[in-house]
Each structure stands twice: as structure tokens, then as C-alpha cells.
Amino acid sequence: MAQFDKKDLERRMNGAVESLKSDLSGLRTGRANTTLLDPVTVEVYGAHMPLTQIATVSAPEPRMLSVQVWDKSNVGPADKAIRSAGLGLNPIVDGQTLRLPIPDLTEERRKELAKLAGQYAEKARVAIRNVRRDGMDSLKTDEKKGEISEDERKRFETEVQKLTDDMIAQADAAATQKEKEILGQ
């Protein structure tokens, strides 16, 4: 039975691109976005939980996030978790609601975020290439076992390379768009 599965390779490459898009959505652009708080975990009830599991996060204004904590005893830990998350946000506690004004980005911070977006894109490209390598290896294994011919292997390798190029182009496009958004162009 041949090991090569193009659908599986495509699924794994798509996963790398989707992961990149998820990572990029967490980068601040100066506008309020609820995904900005996705990486924040809060220590409550003896466990680390995502902020979204103990509160409702919304963006009532373009430059303000609102976190409505459900349990009054979790307001302090939520405040502490947001401050220590390294997002540059300082919550204002108002009862069970935390208000997070989104400060303007300095030019220096914009350049740092654009560089970070580039690093995320490079990680995605490496992940896509690793999937390509796995696919090429399985093709060579199948050929050695005699399950596919050399011509079939070369045809499949061409398909895998085309798929890789398409996925890398998608990753680059997502990163370029985010960099432009961050730099305000």
C-alpha cells in the first residue's frame, strides 16, 4: 500500500497557513480586536484557563476592549493575567468589567511588530517545507518498495512542489498584508 497521500499533505500545509493567520491576528495593529486576548491564560480554580472561558471579551469601541468577568472573585486574577501577558495593555477595573484602552503604536513598536510578523511567516514556510519533505520521502519509499514507478514519483513530486509553492505564496500574502496593516500603509 502506497504511503503517499496528497490530501493529507494539503491538509497539513493548510494547517500551517491557518496557524500563521491565527498568530498574525493576535498582533496588535492599534485597533481593538478580541483575538488580541486569545493567548491570555488566567490561573483560577487551581488551573490555567483561557480568558475567554471565565469572561466575555468584546470591542465596544474601535480603541477599547471590554472584558466582562463572570465571577467576581476572578476579576483580580484576570487583571493580573492581562498585565503580565506582555501585550502592553493596562486594564481599568470597573466592578466586574475590565476596560482595556488600546494605546497608539509608536513607530518603533510598529517596526518590531512587522518584524515579528515576518518571523511568524518564516516559521510557517519552514512548517510547509517540512510537510513537503515528508511527502517527498514517502514517494521515494513507495518507489523503492516498487509500489509506484519512477515516472509516477516524478509526477507526484511536481504536484507536491506546486502545492508547496501555492501554500508558501498564501503564507507570504497573509504576512505582507499584516505588515502593511501594522505599518499603517
TrEMBL record:
Protein name: Ribosome-recycling factor
GO terms assigned for molecular function: ribosomal large subunit binding
InterPro entries in alphabetical order: Ribosome_recyc_fac, Ribosome_recyc_fac_dom, RRF_sf
Membrane-spanning segments: none
Keywords for this protein: Cytoplasm, Protein biosynthesis
GO cellular component: cytosol
Keyword Glycoprotein: no
Major subcellular site: cytoplasm
Organism annotation: Blastomonas natatoria
Compartments reported by the entry: Cytoplasm
Domain Ribosome recycling factor positions: 20-183
Pfam families reported in the protein's UniProt record: RRF (PF01765)
